[in-house]
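Attaching the record inline, Q. Sequence:
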Amino acid sequence: MRVLMLAGNGLSLSMLNDCSESSVDLVNLFRLGSDVPWPATGAPGFLSYEHCPNLWALGARQSSTKEESYAVIETIITAVNACCMADPSTLEDGIYIKAYKELVSYLRYLFVYYDDLLKNKGFFEKVDELATMKALSHVARHSDVDHLDIVTFNYDAMLERCFNSMGIDYSIPKLKDSEGANVSIHKPHGSITFCGRQAVDKSAFGIKYAAQFSEGGLDDLCVRYDYLGENYPMVGILPPAGESDRYKHRWIREIWDGAGEAVSKLGDDDLIILYGLSYWHVDRKEIDHLLAKVPRKAKVISINPSPSNQLDAVCCSLFKSYHSYSHPALLEKVLP
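Structure, as predicted:
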């Protein structure tokens, strides 16, 4: 049996809820922005008028509510999604394009900051306490599971670090292959661990306003789990609410191709797990693209304490076998 898991922000939230790590906010992405260090100096205040004047002008504040924060992000990305369809030579860098470039850089260092907090708190030494990871370990190690493909839209390295702690081998196709691993992790929106091959002097760090909406391929990136706070000229993440097929980053297309290959191997007797997908309207196209290729007779389950009515409707229309569960522990009963 092959298993495909499509994971959203709810996967990481579920891990944190198991251990009550309240110092990491994965919902309001600006709330802790003033705590994030500016790489060139190490001083807090990445999200500030000095360092991110365009984000600041659009209302990005540590005092913003989660609704206000996401409204700022969605507005920026909606504008840039349209700009990506135009000839870049015809565009002038107005406030939204500049804010986008600040946002990309800010989000990378926000999640690096979270990663450091979790490591310092010993979070990844308590993996055995996480119901989420117990369930995923059960799937990955189940005797009937030949291969587990995980397509995650999360930037953080929580899943990989937990697998490392549990001794579960995995590959990141086309970036970090591990011969014989029966788990593959595909990250089409990128990751804080996707870094340029060489760092440059941190004192020279700054927002790359001159950068185009096009970056290199996977051969320009490598996977790192140490020194994530260094200054890497290439940033391997795509901001939330961005439609990846509009962006001309070759690395995104290459990762999507790998995810598509995994879906194409699924059969009628395989299992699909939808874990913590919000199915927000700007993200639906990518999820729909994958779900449409899943065999109609495959068994599909959703794990989400607050499931999307729209995603339920889609799955009930696409698949003959669909179940919605509120807790990951039920995975151990789905695969006894």
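Strands lie at 2-7, 147-152, 183-186, 190-196, 221-223, 235-237, 271-275, 299-303, 321-325. The chain has ten helices and nine strands.

More tomorrow.
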